[in-house]
Amino acid sequence: MPFNACELEIDLFCKGTRVLDDVSLDGTREISRACAGLGSGLEIVEPYLRGVKEEVGMLVGVQLAPERDCSRYDRLIGMGVDRLSFCFECFDAEWFARVCPGKERMLGQKFFFDAMEYCAARMRKGAVSGEVIAGIEPLEATHQAIDYIASIGALPTVSIFRPTIGSGMEAWASPRYEEMRDVMQHVYEGWRRAVKLVTRRLFSRRMQPRPLRNSDSPTGPSDSSPVVPSTDA
């Protein structure tokens, strides 16, 4: 059965799949690499960022695999992107390699951390987020991930693992409610540490979209201001 080229690209990147020599690729078409970590993702995103900013003026968030050369993010930040997100799934290095063999083989976990730290240092507080999946690796590692992300001024975001029928992890047990409640409490505390954010002020007037700017414009001190003001006394 011939592969769909897009599905093949996703499998190769996300699952570390290798196409066997006896598998026919007749009928597939060559596609350019669309993963930022492979050096083409940012160029693909730029026209969409520019179009949305010019025509609509909405908030624009981007989630891509990390660039090997972090300075490439300067152009996207200069254009006015509002949020950048990096999903590395597991904080523990061994679990990362086990659950994300493709990311481990093609990029490595360190590139996610480097890109996240680079962008967090150049954008306003809370404009960068790091994402992990709770319920796969040990709970302690998930807590460490939340603490690490918050420590660099980024927002920790957590998805809860769900064993999906037909997936390679469908037989894995669902995480316990009590543990996930504990994780979400830790996320809330992480948000408060990262930007002194109170959830009821999430949609304050400070969360307005950044305007489209010349991509060569430098980012100044104003970009280090919090996304929303603190309501702490």
Description:
This protein has 233 residues and is an alpha/beta fold. The protein has a single domain (5-19, 29-163, 173-203), classed as Aldolase class I (TIM Barrel), CATH 3.20.20.70. The chain is 39% helix and 10% strand. It contains 8 helices and 4 strands. It has helices at 5-14, 41-55, 73-79, 93-99, 101-106, 109-122, 139-151, 177-195, and strands at residues 61-63, 83-89, 128-134, 155-160. It has a 4-stranded parallel β-sheet with strand order 1-2-3-4. β1 (61-63), α3 (73-79) and β2 form a beta-alpha-beta unit. The longest helix is centred in the last third of the chain and has 19 residues, at 177-195. The protein is globular and about 50 Å long. It starts with a helix and ends in a 38-residue tail after the last helix. Mean pLDDT is 77; it is low at 1-17, 29-39, 198-207 and 217-233.
Features:
four-stranded parallel sheet, alpha/beta, globular, disordered C terminus, TIM Barrel, 8 helices, 233 residues, single chain, 10% strand
